[in-house]
Amino acid sequence: MSETVLNMRNLRVTYPKLSSKVDVVRNCSLQVGQGEILGLVGESGSGKSMTAMSCLGLVPKPGRISGEIEVGGQQIVGRSESQLSEFRGGLSAMIFQNPMTALNPFLNISDQMADAIVSSRPLSRSEAMSESLAALHAVYIPNAEACLAKYPHQLSGGQLQRVMIAMAIACKPRLLIADEPTTALDVTIQAQVLLLIRELASEMKLAVLFITHDLSVVASICDRVAVMYAGEIIESGPVADVFKAPAHPYTRKLFSTVPTLGSKNKQLEYIPGQVPDMSNLPAGCAFQSRCDVAMDQCRDSAPNLSASGPGHLAACHLVASHEDMN
Amino acid sequence: MSTSLPSVANRSLRIEKFRFFLSSNVLFVFGAVIFSLIIVLAIFAPYLAPYDPVKINFSEKLVAPGLTHLMGTDELGRDILSRVIYGARTSLVIGITVLILSISVGVPIGLVAGYFGGRIDTILMRVSDVFLAFPPLLLPIAITAALGAGLFNAMMALAISWFPWYARIMRSSVLAIRKELYIDAARAMGVGHGRIMIRHALPNASTPAIVQASMDFGYTILAAASLSFIGIGARPPTIEWGLMVALSRSKFLDFWWTAAFPGFAIFVTVLAVNLLGDGIRDLLDPKHGDLS
Amino acid sequence: MRRYVVKRLLMMVGILLGVLIITFALSRLLPGSPIEMMLGHRPTQEQIDLAREEFGLDKPIPVQFINYVSSAVQGDFGISLRTHRPVLEDLLGRMAATFELTTLAVILVVIVGIPLGILSAVRQNTLEDHITRTFSIAGMALPMFLVGMVLQMTFYGWLHWLPLQGRMNVEVLLDYPFEKYTGIYLIDTLVTGQWQAFKSAASHLVLPVLTLALASLSVVIRMTRNTMVEVLNEDYIRTARAYGLSRRLIYYRYALKATLIPMMTVVGLTYGFLLGGSVVVEFIFDWPGLGGYVVGAITQNDFPAVMGVTLFLATIYLGVNLIVDLLYFVVDPRLRAS
């Protein structure tokens, strides 16, 4: 059994609004183990990016984090900025969606990588340089020395994303958080980067929290998946199980919206309705208004996570009633 | 999905939002209030001014501010408060006139240049580059010198110096929306260029120009006052704040009120207008978020 | 890079040509021809014709323009109607005074304004930020001439600390003469070791420089703050924070570099603003520079002089902008690539 690196329990991210407040993340719990890749799936606005940022204590002001986040044995919530700064990079490292803007256009790769490494590990600058080189080799950048001297605008999107990954792993983190790293890349490059992440995860025994809205990405490299809706996890489990037998109505709908070649359906599937307004959530299940199997119970009380298979959880009253029956 | 609220709850939400807007935009409200006051002063000057602003009265010359003359009198015995009130008219007229002129010349030019692009656009850009190459105030000075001193000529000069700026702003925003689908759609339906420009491009691309105008209003007043101050703008007997300060120069060290009050009037007016302009900009173009 | 420089220089020449067109148009194509102004009242027809021939005004407009441009390029801006000397000579004699004033003002604005703007951005929405922004908003509403006069009232009229006008105390100038190598009094007096003269020059500089600086300070603070806030919201700053880079590192290395380009633009614009503002300030403080020259020229209808100064200052401003544009290359690696 691999050791749990990320242990998140009851995470809540709150934003003040007008005279009240909004929870953009409500009661989110996740675990990721060493060498394991957990896919966090959801539509935009579901709260997945916020969840990711919370692991680094990087939620943009004036957001507040509450709950419990433990990374490699260290508590994240409630720490001061300087303490968090120590954790960032060395404990958990993050790679972002758009590598073109995520790197400083005015500094070369070498400086930026060295800065990141020196801020995360107790190394001298020259040691950091050799670590940078090693990392660039590990992500299969050809001619790493030349790359170090370059500026971000001189590299392609795919190369830049590799550089970002190199920067992350050079800091030797326990947890790698990838916030939609392949969304902005070409499909062919996407595949390469995904395989790279997979390889590094197992080689370096990294725990990876992989944020995406793309189910095919989840299918290709994730071990487990967690589905997020309206700020909470509504289904989680091993990828094979969830894909074969999605338990939550939302997840089922999600899968059905992905068109497949050769299917007889002429019409595109979609989920009717809209993502709920987080400041105006109904009592009960957040998905009820768009759910085609909603019951009266769904309007009254919000469902808790219940098992629909080994290691496979879903927050749905239907699932709970089946569980009771078994 | 939001359910429809009963109308009472709706109203109180709106009131709350309005109060929130007011409190987070105190400066804007302040500017709006002051500016309204100034407009009132300008419109009702004859009724609000305690004395005749042009009446010379040597027996009352250079009286310090007091109960009879709240802002004192100048060297010709004229009541400064009354002159300041009448000066509001002049300044507002200047601001409005110059802006209307600049916009009515600059916006169409920018519209055409941005819409058609190509050579017309390049020519426009070069021309506006030339106008922008002059340090501020210098071109108005040169133009006024050529036309002859006087408030009207000064306003013309300011408008001439400024319209390229508006042309440029308009052109940028038209360029941005030209790529929008609805322009192509209109063309595909056979709508003529002129109609597209007026009915589609103009309304949607005007915002930056409007924002700029609201921010320029104050600067127009300042520039006109400066021109009057150095002697080539408003001339006696026109009542203009900058001119009043200029006339006080020989005596202001001993009779501070002759310069202070008109100067302060300029300051307050321009401040109010700037705050108002900032607020308008925040409303129409929230990306800037300077006052947020 | 070289191609860009050439392109930029050509552009500057083109704009200069446009400037010349404008000044030419202003001098020739207006009713109330300069001839009558120069000849005084009721010139005879013969005098008019003679003058027209002498000034080349009987030739077609395009030819006139070419003559105009060629003489301008050779530095012939005409003869001043007041001093009866070549305008260019007048200008060159007064250039140093304005240069001293505007340069000191720019330095002051940069040293005070940019740090304040950055502080304001870094401490967004704290007390320091609000105070700075209030000051900045108020500063932009103050007319320059009022600031100058208030400073005169306070520091001369009331406190008697500083002189009212002028560049130097006349007695000091006579008692402690110094060689005017550069025309910049602060430098010249130091170089020739005339301490009294230096003190006088410095004390005369304080108020005019302050007046100029205060006016543009507000704008610089505001623009710096806005730029810095924008930069701090960029993705790469988020990345830097995500790796735990120290605050100092983030601000000084990551953020500041990005603000350099907009800041240079602002400084260039400020210089232009000050060149224009020097007209008012030199007028108030009786400063023997280009601004004072212009005002005197206008009020006495010395048209060639007005046009000469306009052309001169516009050229200087274009030069400043050219330098700023070229400096972009030094700062932004993205430009260097092409």
Would you kindly provide a written description of the structure presented here, covering whatever features stand out?
The complex is a heterotrimer of chains A (326), B (292) and C (338). With 326 residues, chain A is an alpha/beta fold. Chain A has 13 helices and 12 strands. The two termini of chain A are 28 Å apart. The mean pLDDT of chain A is 86. Chain B has 292 residues and is mainly α. Chain B is built from 12 helices and no strands. The relative contact order of chain C is 0.14. Chains in contact: A-B, A-C, B-C. At the A-B interface, loops of A face helix 1 of B.
| Low-pLDDT sequence parts of chain B | 288-292
Secondary structure category of chain B: mainly alpha
Q: Tell me the series of helices and strands of chain B, N- to C-terminal.
A: HHHHHHHHHHHH
What is the CATH class of chain B?
A: Mainly Alpha
The biggest sheet of chain B, with number of strands, parallel, antiparallel or mixed sense and barrel status, is: none
Helical amount among residues of chain C, as a percent range?
Answer: over 70%
Give the number of helices of chain B.
Answer: 12
Calculate the terminal CA-CA distance of chain C, rounded to whole Å.
Answer: 7 Å
What does this entry show, briefly?
Chain B has 292 residues and is mainly α.
Question: Notable features of this structure?
Answer:
heterotrimer; B: 292 residues; mainly alpha; MetI-like fold; C: 338 residues; 15 helices
Q: What's the layout of helices and strands?
A:
The complex is a heterotrimer of chains A (326), B (292) and C (338).
Chain A: E1 4-17, E2 20-33, E3 37-41, H1 48-55, E4 64-71, E5 74-75, H2 81-87, E6 92-95, H3 99-102, H4 109-120, H5 125-138, H6 144-149, H7 157-170, E7 175-179, H8 187-204, E8 207-212, H9 215-221, E9 224-229, E10 232-238, H10 239-244, H11 249-257, H12 296-300, E11 305-309, E12 312-315, H13 317-325
Helix pairs in contact in A: 4-5, 4-7, 5-7, 7-8
Chain B: H1 7-24, H2 26-43, H3 45-48, H4 80-116, H5 118-132, H6 138-147, H7 151-178, H8 181-188, H9 193-205, H10 207-229, H11 241-247, H12 257-284
Helix pairs in contact in B: 1-2, 2-4, 2-12, 4-5, 4-7, 4-10, 4-12, 5-7, 6-7, 7-9, 7-10, 8-9, 10-11, 10-12, 11-12
Chain C: H1 2-28, H2 34-39, H3 45-54, H4 61-73, H5 87-122, H6 127-141, H7 144-158, H8 170-175, H9 185-191, H10 195-232, H11 235-242, H12 247-284, H13 290-299, H14 303-331, H15 333-337
Helix pairs in contact in C: 1-14, 5-6, 5-10, 5-12, 6-10, 7-10, 7-12, 9-10, 10-12, 11-12, 12-13, 12-14, 13-14
